[in-house]
Design a protein that fits this description.
- The strands form two sheets. Strands 4-3-7-6-5 form a five-stranded antiparallel β-sheet, with helices on both faces. Strands 1-2 form a two-stranded antiparallel ribbon.
- The chain is α+β, with helices and mostly antiparallel strands.
- The chain contains four helices and seven strands.
- Strand 3 (40-44) and strand 4 form a beta hairpin.
- It has helices at 23-37, 57-60, 67-74, 128-146; strands at 2-5, 11-14, 40-44, 49-53, 79-80, 98-107, 110-119.
- The mean pLDDT is 84.
Length: 147
Amino acid sequence: MEIYTDRDGSVIFKKYSLMGGLTEFAGQLCDTLNRTTGRTAVITDRDNIISVSGAPRRELMDKQISPDLERLMEGRQIYQHKGGEDGIPLCDEDGRFFLDTVAPILSEGDVLGSVVFTSPEEELGGGEVEYKLAQSIAAFLGKHMES
């Protein structure tokens, strides 16, 4: 738990996120993933989106992730949408972006967040490149958090 004070003296409580300190670095990784694939790339912590590239930031930044994405992360496996399946929403409140590829970020067995490729439901269709990139970046971030 992080505790802050407002200018008017109000106390603000915020849930601590290990990934929160990596926001700038995560932004650079998202930009690279987006430039490499042309797809919308997102990095989350366990609760919210902390970085996005390839979509309007204000639409997704700091939004709460969907319970379905939380369950996928807890499963500790890489997920990739298969044609014919219903789309899984990225955010809890917004139904415009859906999960294409998700790789959980694991550090010492703990789930810290995820690397996600997302798109509107009609554009879902990630391939092997997205799978490998999400897997590699998630593993890299997990190792980075161990040091």
